[in-house]
Design a protein that fits this description.
With about 300 residues, this protein is an alpha/beta fold. The chain has a domain of about 190 residues: 3-Layer(aba) Sandwich (Rossmann fold), CATH 3.40.50. The protein contains ten helices and 13 strands. The strands form three sheets. Strands 1, 2, 3, 4, 5, 6, 7, 8 and 12 form a nine-stranded mixed beta sheet that branches. Helix 1 crosses helix 5, helix 4 packs across helix 6 and helix 6 packs across helix 10. The protein is globular and about 60 Å long.
């Protein structure tokens, strides 16, 4: 099998590439940097530029499936210009792939794309499954996911199965949110955000990579939540990190108004609450290695 991966050098992409190679799956990848192009048999790079519409169509040769992860990070201040970039990066990359395949003879049977649990409204009481109907006006992240997932459906017109993985808080020791949470706790200045009651639906990065390949190898189409079975509150997450690191939590919780001053609209990432179910993917036979937060954190931080 050969897959084409967008965003292959990112946090999640790098883990998926590693797992592909372990399973003897060959990887083609797209990059905006010509300096990052390699030409090994099991890891071939191809140039693309979504803004200008450039794409080397040789990237599709002998490819059975696409794993689509490319998109501007949401963990950066949401100025009006950057919000456009977040939205456009998901639209442009998806449209470019679809348009490049139109009229081409190809061997691609499936696209497995990243999406986000940010599509679900902020709630302390709801327990979200994939079928929950969301409205565009709920939040900026909801709008982004709606646009993103709608663009992905264009692959269906090319007789390609579409799978969407709505990803939660990814726990990794190589980057992302966990390392940012760990820093203040290590120095004794860690604290929960707001009242700490907001739900955090998390997943260990190895489970997430396994989930992507499980969906691919079992040709599962539709939407799946990429979260572990046991969400926790922000307070519990903060306390568990401190316990695993053997550090005290001495400071009071950080008020919402303060983080809004510091981060602007992006503060929503810290305060919105989404308790999300993974029952659908478990019912398809997928098993998580890290069902509970503390063992996951011990694996990553000790």
């Amino acid at each position: 099998m050969r897959v084409l991966i967008t965003g292959a050098t990112g946090l999640i992409g790098a883990e998926i590439v590693k797992l592909c190679h372990k399973k003897a799956i060959k990887v083609n990848y797209l990059t905006t940097s010509k300096a990052k192009i390699e030409k090994r048999e099991n890891y071939k790079g191809f140039y693309w530029n979504p803004k200008s519409g450039d794409l080397d169509v040789d990237c599709f040769k002998d490819v059975d499936a696409i794993i689509h992860l490319a998109g501007a990070t949401v963990s950066k201040r949401w100025t009006p210009e950057y919000k456009k970039e977040i939205l456009n990066s998901r639209k442009e990359t998806t449209q470019l792939l679809v348009n490049a395949l139109k009229g081409e003879t190809h061997t691609i049977k499936q696209v497995v794309s990243a999406s986000a649990i940010g599509v679900y409204p902020d709630s302390l009481i709801n327990y979200y499954e994939e079928g929950f109907k969301t409205k565009d006006e709920n939040s900026f992240l909801t709008q982004v996911v709606h646009v993103w997932e709608n663009e992905l459906d264009a692959f269906k017109s090319l007789n390609i199965n579409v799978s969407k993985i709505r990803i939660g808080l990814v726990l990794s020791k190589k980057g992302g949110a966990l390392l940012e949470m760990v820093k203040p706790i290590k120095f004794g200045v860690g604290a929960a955000f707001g009242n700490g009651k907001q739900w955090q639906s998390w997943i260990h990065i190895k489970d997430l990579a396994n989930l992507f390949l499980y969906v691919l190898e079992h040709n599962l189409s539709g939407v799946y939540n990429g979260v572990a079975p046991n969400p926790v509150t922000n307070q519990e997450l903060t306390k568990t990190i401190a316990r695993v690191l053997n550090r005290p939590l001495l400071l009071p919780n950080i008020p919402k108004f303060f983080m809004k001053l510091v981060l602007g609209e992006m503060h929503a990432l810290l305060f919105e609450s989404q308790r999300v179910s993974c029952k659908k993917i478990e019912d398809k036979g997928f098993n998580f290695n890290y069902n509970y937060l503390e063992p996951a954190l011990k694996d990553l931080l000790i």
